[in-house]
Automatic annotation (TrEMBL):
This is XRE family transcriptional regulator. Residues 99-126 form a coiled coil. InterPro entries: Lambda_DNA-bd_dom_sf (IPR010982). One of its GO terms (molecular function) is DNA binding. Keywords: Coiled coil. It comes from Pseudonocardia cypriaca. The keyword Coiled coil applies.
Amino acid sequence: MTDAERAGDEDWNSVAEAIRNRMAETRMTQMDVASRARLSLTTIRELQHNLNPRRRRPQTLAAVSEALGWPAGYLHQVLRGDRPEPHDDEVRDPVLQALDGLSREIRELRDRVEQIERQLAAEGAKP
């Protein structure tokens, strides 16, 4: 089986989404992750935005997982389509719980603002 065929069985979009979400949760930059994982900024950028989906060395995904505070095999599980469970520490961490709540509230507020903007735009279009 070629790398291209294997890549078809792998969910690089989910890996990119997991990385983006985790970076947002932890407020880490690409440079932070690259430095902690000891990888190039280009590699982090490619993974975060799924710019070059291709087979990567297992050590690469392990390094990114650990840099983001996950177990070494976390992103590999995501890549295979598994739903890895968060660390016990993450589940009980009051700061992460508060951040999740704030994130939900911000999404709700953003949705409300967009709805208001659409209403105002529709009212402005009426003669």
